[in-house]
């Protein structure tokens, strides 16, 4: 018997597999695709994933190395997920080995056994009561006992700190016989009893139609676009669908956008379900991530909630996939493997024969187009659930009105009225920091980043100029670096400045700023949300972090300080993003009894897109935007791929792209491919970033097939180009940003 040849995907950017001889002692029957092996690679050892077992290799016998060790007895990756990774690598023209690296939990990539670890769990002891008289004078122990009692599956020891439980209190409770500790696998016990912890709401007719439609489709592939205005009860629809899925003995995967929504969403699901919920977002550590991943794979988690990369979580009995806020840009990964989790989720649902629900108040134009063309079933929720009124929009023309740190007089009055009525105000401004630039009033010097074609933002609180593109930081000069005069002025307003000014204008009310800077500290966001939820009148100032999914019942006025950026940007998606952002922010207003109003400050109060959006709503806007895209031949009516390159020397990136372009032209001719246009190369809109010069080549095609055939033949050639190692380059299939 010849020793089998193993074809492995290795963590390398090269788009090819690597051949090794199987370790001597390992019989062929012990090997299966998907297993991990440790192999020598150059001067290092790396961990690869077995893709294929063959008898032949193009590598000469003498050069073929032997794999060192097989790490698994069973492939850690179930077949369905293996297949999804293959599809992903091919579609995004990415190295398969690197695709596995993005898809697998870090610890598996590092060779950790693919098994759940042992963990200590705290439980209420048999017969223990939270009102035990011995705790009358021990409030901390009483609280701790109450908390543990809320977790029927017990509390993992590792989570004590998160639940603010002290080990000392628990030890005392154990001595009193009120708690017990159990050592078992991390995965929580079998599910028992009813799935519901709280009754389901009575659905309104539109919600009922939506639930019925998806329910009828459980058990097979179908994609649904749940387009429901903010507050229309989409989440309630998800919850009731998940209940159906759980009752059928299956699992549900719920993807949520990146920013800060994890704990809130988790809390809502935990209130509803007596189910094992695994949370996979960017703040869980590697061990927790692996445990959650394994629990999902082995059918020991019933509901899996996570951000983008949770898409790659295997499920033993998958029943349903839900993508909440499907339009959200955080589903697209912008580095390495540039996948779109929403798009891949649809592929996965098709591969695993599951229904998928894409939900949003402001669906992406892509998804709407898919609904129009019949690929997705459209489910609409047009009214707010629970009787809340939709907010009223006002476009406030600020042309000739003086702005005080970005705030006009009429807006100030509206704020004062809202606060006086005991309600809350939300001020939206999508710029962090104090001011977007520092300007010399004498000579016109601007605080330019030395490494980027961009200006540095003044952060007054830290007395720093910061570049938001490369992270460069410096102290603001006290004199103009160019003319030495001292008249340096901050220009424009960011959240810090708005916060400062509002605190002066409304000294009797708290002003809370919510942006990436103010919430960087752990727990800061929860603290801010806690204050808001107490419901006293206050002003919230923030970036798009505020726009996403939060529920602020006491906010009745939403102020959008500047809507103009989205109306005259060079990026063809800018107006779509602006519309989504405005409606999402607006959706925070008046979600409870009092009606809300939204004031949009703009210099373009008559702009047709803005008029349409505010007077006729998102769907009218979207129809208009789609017809503009169709006329211009832009996505979703065409398909794009963007080859980006950057290099230290000017001209180097363009030279690489020139060669790439020539190769592509050659291939188009040789393969007789039509309908693909090569646009560029051109310098990137921000040509210099972080000290590198950047350029790009855009591929636009009327159909996917020729574009993908071209790319499949093209990428291996690009890897061979003389500059391919000196120039940093990447391909972005279906880019959502063209810079
Ligand atoms: P969305 O996810 O669309 O923003 P939610 O599901 O969060 O909407 O619902 C908004 C509010 O309406 C929540 O407070 C929710 O409890 C309530 N709600 C949802 N559905 C109903 C219903 N059928 N009857 C009464 N209240 C509802
Ligand atoms: Zn100057
Ligand atoms: Zn910079």
TrEMBL record:
InterPro entries: DEAD/DEAH_box_helicase_dom, Helicase_ATP-bd, Helicase_C-like, P-loop_NTPase, PriA, PriA_3primeBD, PriA_3primeBD_sf, PriA_C. Its cofactor is Zn(2+). It comes from the Bacteria. Zn(2+) 2 binds at residues 449, 452, 467, 470. The keyword Transit peptide does not apply. Residues 215-381 form the Helicase ATP-binding domain. Its EC number is 5.6.2.4. CDD domains: DEXHc_priA, SF2_C_priA. Coiled coil: none annotated. Residues 457-632 form the Helicase C-terminal domain. Component of the replication restart primosome. Initiates the restart of stalled replication forks, which reloads the replicative helicase on sites other than the origin of replication. Recognizes and binds to abandoned replication forks and remodels them to uncover a helicase loading site. Promotes assembly of the primosome at these replication forks. Belongs to the helicase family. PriA subfamily. This is Replication restart protein PriA.
């Amino acid at each position: 018997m010849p020793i089998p040849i193993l074809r492995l995907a290795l963590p390398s950017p090269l788009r090819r597999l690597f051949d090794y001889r199987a370790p001597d002692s390992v019989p062929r029957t012990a090997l299966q695709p998907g297993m991990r092996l440790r192999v020598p690679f150059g001067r290092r050892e790396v961990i690869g994933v077995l893709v294929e077992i063959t008898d032949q290799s193009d590598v000469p016998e003498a050069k073929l190395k032997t794999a060192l060790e097989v790490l698994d007895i069973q492939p850690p990756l179930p077949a369905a997920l293996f297949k999804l990774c293959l599809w992903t690598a091919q579609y995004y023209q990415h190295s398969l080995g690197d695709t596995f690296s993005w898809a697998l939990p870090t610890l598996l990539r590092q060779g950790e056994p693919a098994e759940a670890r042992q963990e200590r769990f705290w439980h209420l002891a048999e017969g223990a009561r939270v009102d035990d008289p011995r705790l009358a004078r021990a409030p901390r122990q009483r609280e701790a006992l109450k908390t543990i009692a809320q977790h029927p599956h017990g509390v993992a020891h590792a989570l004590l700190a998160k639940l603010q439980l002290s080990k000392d209190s628990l030890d005392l409770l154990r001595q009193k016989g009120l708690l017990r500790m159990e050592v078992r696998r991390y995965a929580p016990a079998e599910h028992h009893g009813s799935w519901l912890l709280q009754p389901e709401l009575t659905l309104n007719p539109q919600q009922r139609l939506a639930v019925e439609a998806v329910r009828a489709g459980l058990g097979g592939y179908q994609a649904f676009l749940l387009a429901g205005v903010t507050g229309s009860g989409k989440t309630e629809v998800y919850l009731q669908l998940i209940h159906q899925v759980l009752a059928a003995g299956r699992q549900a995967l719920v993807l949520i956008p990146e920013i800060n929504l994890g704990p809130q969403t988790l809390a809502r699901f935990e209130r509803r379900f007596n189910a094992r919920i695994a949370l996979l977002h960017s703040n869980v550590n590697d061990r927790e991530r692996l445990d959650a991943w394994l629990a999902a794979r082995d059918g020991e988690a019933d509901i899996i909630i996570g951000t983008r990369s949770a898409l790659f979580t295997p499920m033993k009995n998958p029943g349903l996939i839900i993508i909440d806020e499907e339009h959200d840009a955080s589903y697209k990964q912008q580095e390495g493997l540039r996948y779109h989790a929403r798009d891949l989720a649809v592929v996965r649902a098709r591969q695993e024969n599951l229904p998928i629900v894409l939900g949003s108040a402001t669906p992406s134009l892509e998804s709407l187009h898919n609904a129009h063309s019949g690929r997705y079933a459209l489910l609409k929720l047009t009214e707010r659930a629970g009787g809340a009124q939709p907010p009223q929009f006002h476009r406030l023309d600020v042309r000739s009105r003086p702005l005080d740190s970005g705030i006009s007089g009429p807006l100030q009055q509206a704020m004062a009225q809202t606060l006086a009525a005991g309600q809350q105000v939300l001020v939206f401004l999508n710029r962090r920091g104090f001011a977007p630039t520092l300007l010399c009033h004498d000579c016109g010097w601007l605080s330019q980043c030395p490494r980027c074609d961009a200006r540095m933002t003044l952060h007054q609180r830290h007395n720093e100029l910061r570049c938001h593109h490369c992270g460069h930081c410096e102290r603001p000069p006290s004199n103009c670096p160019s003319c030495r005069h001292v008249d340096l002025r901050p220009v424009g307003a960011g959240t810090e400045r708005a916060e400062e000014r509002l605190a002066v204008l409304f000294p009797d009310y708290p002003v809370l700023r919510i942006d990436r800077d103010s919430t960087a500290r752990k727990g800061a966001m929860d603290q801010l949300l806690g204050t808001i939820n107490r419901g006293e009148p206050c002003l919230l100032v923030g970036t798009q972090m505020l726009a996403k999914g939060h529920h602020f019942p006491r906010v009745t006025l939403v102020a959008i300080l500047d809507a103009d950026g989205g109306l005259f940007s060079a990026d063809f998606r800018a107006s779509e993003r602006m519309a989504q952002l405005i409606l999402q922010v607006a959706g925070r207003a008046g979600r409870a009894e009092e009606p809300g109003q939204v004031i949009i400050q703009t210099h373009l109060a008559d702009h047709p897109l803005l008029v349409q959006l505010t007077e006729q709503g998102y769907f009218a806007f979207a129809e208009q935007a789609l017809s503009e895209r169709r006329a211009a031949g832009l996505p979703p009516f065409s398909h794009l791929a963007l080859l980006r390159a950057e290099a230290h020397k000017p001209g180097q990136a363009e030279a690489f792209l020139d060669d790439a372009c020539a190769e592509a032209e050659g291939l188009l001719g040789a393969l007789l491919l039509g309908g693909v246009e090569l646009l560029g190369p051109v310098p990137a809109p921000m040509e210099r970033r972080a000290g590198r010069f950047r350029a790009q080549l855009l591929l636009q095609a009327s159909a996917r097939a020729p574009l993908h055939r071209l790319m499949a033949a093209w990428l291996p050639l690009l890897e061979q180009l003389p500059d391919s190692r000196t120039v940093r380059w990447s391909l972005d299939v279906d880019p959502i940003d063209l810079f």
